[in-house]
C-alpha cells in the first residue's frame, strides 16, 4: 500500500526560530499581530487547539520517557498533521482534527486552514530583534500524480514548497530532503530523513527555526561551574549562568513550584518552572495551558544544549489518531485513490540555551506508501529538573516546550 512520510523536525533554541504555513482561497494582506478587535479570527481557535494539543502530547511523551529530557514543537507537529488533513476523508479526517484539538461543530475545516494561514503570516513577520521562521514542504514522487486541489490548498494555506522527488533513488531523495531541512534550520538539523522507501508517495515536512536574544542577557563572566542534582543518586557539574536581577515570577503554593518568565527581545518569552524538591511528578501531572502569573526574584540557570527524536505513531495513536496509520486510512484527497496510509511520522528537536539567548529548530515529517505578592529577593537556582515553555505571548502561540532532567 502506498504511504506518506510525515517529517516533523525541531533544530535549536538559542537566538533564532523558524516556521511556515499555507478550501476557499481568500487573499490575506493583513499581516499585523492580533488586536483586541481581532480575537474572533480563526487563528485564535488555532492557538487554543494548539495549546490543548501541546499539553496532551507532552503528557503522553512524559509517560514514556519519565527520566529523559523532553523537547518538541507543538506547532510544528500540528501544522504537518493539518496539511495531511487536507487530503483526508471520513473517519481519518475526523480523527486527525479531533486529535489536534479541533471540534468540527465549533470550527470548520475552512476556519482551521485559514487560521493556520493567518497565524503563519503573523509569526513569519521580519523582526530585527527576533528571527522566527516556520515553513512547509511536500516532496512528491515524480512518478505519481497528486490531486490538484490538495496541492493548491497546501500551497495557499500553508505556503508549502512542492518539490518533485525521485524516490526510486532513495540516496538522491534523502540528500535532496536533508539538504532542504539543513538549509531551512540554519544547519541545526542534518541527516534527519534516512531509510526512505522507494514506494513512498510523499514526504510532508514542517520546519521551525528561531533565534532570540534575552532582553537582559546573562554575563559570561558570571557563569561558573555548579552542581545539578539529576536525582537522589546523580549529581553532574554544569556551567551555571548567574544573574542578579528582578524577574517576573509566580509562586504556586498549591503545586509547590516557582514559575519564572524570561523575556527575549521582541515578542517571545520563555517560562521556566522549578518544582520544589520531590514535587516534580506532582507538578508535571498538573501542567496545563492556564499556568501563567508574575513574581520577582533572583535567578541562576544552567547553560545547556539538548535534543530529542520521537517516532510519533504510538503517541498519536494514544491521542486517538489511529486510522491514518492503517490500511483503512482514507487519504483519497491526495491521490484520488484510497490505497494510501502514513507509514512513518517523526519529530526531531534541538534546543540551545546560553548567556545570549536561545536558538531552536524543529522538523516534522511523514510519508505515504501504497498499500501576586510584593517583590522578594530570593535566590532561585535551577539546580534540579525543571520544565520550560517558549511562546509568543502576543498571540499565545506555544512554539516549544519540554523538560530538562539532565542538562548534559
Descriptive tags:
single chain; 408 residues; alpha+beta; Antithrombin, Chain I, domain 2; Alpha-1-antitrypsin, domain 1; 2 domains; six-stranded antiparallel sheet; 9 helices; 25% helix; Kallistatin-like; serine protease inhibitor
Descriptive overview:
By secondary structure, the protein is of the alpha+beta class. It folds into 2 domains: 2-213 and 304-370, 2-Layer Sandwich (Antithrombin, Chain I, domain 2), CATH 3.30.497.10; 220-303 and 377-404, Alpha-1-antitrypsin, domain 1. The protein contains 9 helices and 18 strands. Strands 1, 2, 4, 5, 6, 13, 14 and 15 form an 8-stranded mixed sheet that branches. Strands 3-18-17-11-10-9 form a 6-stranded antiparallel sheet. β9 (248-252) and β10 form a beta hairpin. α1 packs across α4 (109-123). The termini are far apart. Residues 6-37, 292-298 and 370-377 have low confidence and may be disordered.
- Give the helix level as a range of percent: 25-40%
Per the CATH scheme, the topology name of the largest domain is: Antithrombin, Chain I, domain 2
Class derived from helix and strand content: alpha+beta
Task: Quickly give the CATH architecture of the largest domain.
Answer: 2-Layer Sandwich
What is the element string, with H for helices and E for strands? EEHEHHHEHEHEEEEEEHEEHHEEEEE
Could you give a short account of the major beta sheet? 8 strands, mixed
Q: What would CATH call the class of the largest domain?
A: Alpha Beta
Residue runs with pLDDT of under 50 for 5 or more positions: 6-37, 292-298, 370-377
What's the number of domains? 2
Distance between termini? 42 Å
CATH superfamily of the largest domain: Antithrombin, subunit I, domain 2
Number of strands: 18
Strand content: 25-35%
Radius of gyration: 21 Å
* Helix count from the secondary structure assignment: 9
Amino acid at each position: 500500500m502506498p504511504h506518506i512520510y510525515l517529517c516533523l523536525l525541531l533544530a535549536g533554541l538559542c537566538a533564532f526560530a523558524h516556521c511556515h504555513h499555507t478550501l476557499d482561497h481568500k487573499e490575506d494582506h493583513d499581516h499585523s499581530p492580533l488586536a483586541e478587535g481581532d480575537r474572533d479570527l480563526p487563528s485564535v481557535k488555532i492557538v487554543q487547539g494548539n495549546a490543548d494539543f501541546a499539553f496532551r502530547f507532552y503528557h503522553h511523551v512524559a509517560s514514556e520517557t519519565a527520566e529523559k529530557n523532553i523537547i518538541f514543537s507543538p506547532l510544528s507537529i500540528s501544522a504537518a498533521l493539518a496539511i495531511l488533513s487536507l487530503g483526508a476523508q471520513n473517519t481519518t479526517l475526523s480523527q486527525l482534527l479531533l486529535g489536534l484539538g479541533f471540534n468540527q461543530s465549533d470550527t470548520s475545516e475552512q476556519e482551521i486552514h485559514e487560521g493556520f494561514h493567518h497565524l503563519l503570516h503573523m509569526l513569519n513577520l521580519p523582526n530585527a530583534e527576533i528571527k522566527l521562521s516556520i515553513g512547509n514542504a511536500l516532496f512528491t514522487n515524480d512518478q505519481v500524480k497528486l490531486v490538484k486541489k490538495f496541492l493548491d490548498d497546501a500551497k495557499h494555506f500553508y505556503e508549502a514548497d512542492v518539490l518533485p522527488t525521485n524516490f526510486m533513488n532513495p540516496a538522491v531523495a534523502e540528500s535532496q530532503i536533508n539538504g532542504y531541512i539543513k538549509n531551512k534550520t540554519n544547519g541545526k538539523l542534518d541527516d534527519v530523513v534516512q531509510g526512505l522507501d522507494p514506494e513512498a508517495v510523499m514526504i510532508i515536512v514542517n520546519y521551525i527555526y528561531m533565534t532570540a536574544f534575552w532582553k537582559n542577557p546573562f554575563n559570561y563572566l558570571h557563569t561558573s561551574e555548579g552542581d545539578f542534582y539529576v536525582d537522589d543518586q546523580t549529581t553532574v557539574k554544569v556551567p551555571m549562568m548567574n544573574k542578579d536581577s528582578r524577574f517576573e515570577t509566580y509562586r504556586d503554593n498549591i503545586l509547590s513550584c516557582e514559575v519564572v518568565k524570561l523575556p527575549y527581545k521582541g515578542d517571545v518569552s520563555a517560562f521556566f518552572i522549578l518544582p520544589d524538591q520531590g514535587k516534580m511528578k506532582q507538578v508535571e501531572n498538573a501542567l496545563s495551558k492556564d499556568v501563567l502569573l508574575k513574581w520577582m526574584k533572583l535567578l541562576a540557570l544552567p547553560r545547556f544544549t539538548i535534543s530529542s527524536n520521537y517516532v510519533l505513531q504510538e503517541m498519536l495513536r494514544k491521542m486517538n489518531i489511529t486510522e491514518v496509520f492503517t490500511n483503512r486510512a482514507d487519504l483519497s484527497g491526495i491521490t484520488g485513490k484510497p490505497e494510501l496510509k502514513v507509514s512513518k511520522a517523526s519529530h526531531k528537536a534541538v534546543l540551545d540555551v546560553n548567556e545570549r539567548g536561545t536558538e531552536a529548530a524543529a522538523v516534522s515529517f511523514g510519508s505515504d506508501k501504497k498499500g501576586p505578592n510584593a517583590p522578594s529577593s530570593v535566590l532561585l537556582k535551577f539546580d534540579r529538573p525543571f520544565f520550560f515553555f517558549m511562546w509568543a505571548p502576543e498571540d499565545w502561540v506555544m512554539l516549544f516546550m519540554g523538560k530538562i532532567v539532565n542538562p548534559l
